[in-house]
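R.M. (postdoc): so does anyone remember the format we settled on? I'll just put the structure tokens first.
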């Protein structure tokens, strides 16, 4: 039977991998500016400053793209909750520096999308602000899970976010929305790679313990969701539009990462690991 490590032991044992991957991430990520993707020349004041308030006739963005970007910005608005949940488990050394980097990148996504939606009047700004207040007031609390579960969960969440933004780009709504969605997807994919690399390092360190975490996270996986201003559930709306379909998570989210981790070709699993691998095989069918 393989030795199980505590979360504290894992934080220490994986610290070097975090340092290496933080360095790699910072070398790979492109330094981009959110203001460069916003057509500020299209903007105008609202009535409070002598302009005109929002009217549905001002909207030029298609409904699917508008809803998809609304979901993205509202999820990003809840960043304080996600930062708290991630930070309280990773408050040490290079782990904490990664939390700071990840938070800054996610905040940049929120800045970009919100500015674009406001300047182009793509959505009702009053409804969007009310939805933001409601969503952030509800907040987000991640169930108590161990470190390896957290790493696998984050890898899956960022991979799913990448899928969502690639599909927004594929709408070809207009050149700027395509560019915005592709730009955010690149960040999502690099963040997923960071977490995936830590899971890979953990598999080499404690294979049974790690593959058990992977199996458990696949079984319980759900993307962040929210109630849209019109009362609809974001998961249902995005699935109907083909932007993110939970039924395809096995194909688009799990399978690439399972292949990356060599889950079905590894020979270092003990009895517990083999049991977890069998569960994963069953879940992906």
């Amino acid at each position: 039977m393989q030795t199980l490590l505590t979360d504290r032991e894992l934080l220490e044992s994986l610290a070097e991998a975090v340092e290496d991957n933080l360095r790699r991430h910072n070398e790979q990520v492109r330094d981009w500016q959110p203001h460069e993707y916003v057509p500020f020349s299209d903007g105008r004041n609202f009535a409070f400053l002598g302009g005109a308030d929002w009217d549905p006739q001002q909207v030029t963005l298609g409904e699917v793209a508008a809803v998809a970007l609304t979901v993205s910005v509202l999820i990003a608005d809840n960043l304080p909750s996600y930062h708290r949940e991630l930070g309280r488990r990773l408050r040490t050394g290079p782990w904490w520096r990664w939390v700071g980097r990840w938070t800054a990148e996610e905040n940049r996504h929120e800045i970009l999308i919100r500015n674009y939606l406001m300047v182009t009047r793509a959505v009702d700004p009053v409804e969007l602000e009310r939805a933001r207040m409601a969503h952030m007031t509800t907040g987000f609390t991640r169930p108590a899970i161990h470190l390896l579960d957290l790493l696998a969960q984050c890898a899956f969440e960022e991979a799913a976010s990448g899928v969502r933004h690639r599909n927004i780009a594929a709408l070809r709504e207009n050149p700027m929305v395509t560019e915005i969605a592709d730009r955010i997807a690149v960040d999502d994919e690099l963040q997923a790679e960071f977490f995936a690399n830590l899971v890979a390092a953990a598999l080499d360190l404690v294979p049974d313990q790690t593959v058990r975490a992977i199996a458990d996270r696949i079984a319980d996986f759900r993307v962040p969701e929210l109630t849209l201003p019109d009362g609809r559930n974001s998961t249902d709306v995005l699935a109907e539009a083909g932007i993110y379909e939970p039924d395809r998570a096995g194909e688009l989210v799990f399978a690439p990462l399972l292949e990356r981790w060599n889950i079905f070709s590894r020979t270092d699993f003990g009895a517990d690991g083999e049991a977890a691998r069998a569960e994963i095989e069953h879940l992906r069918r």
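R.M.: ...and that's the designed sequence above, right after the tokens. Also worth knowing: The two ends are 29 Å apart (CA to CA). Residues 175-205 form the longest helix (31 residues).
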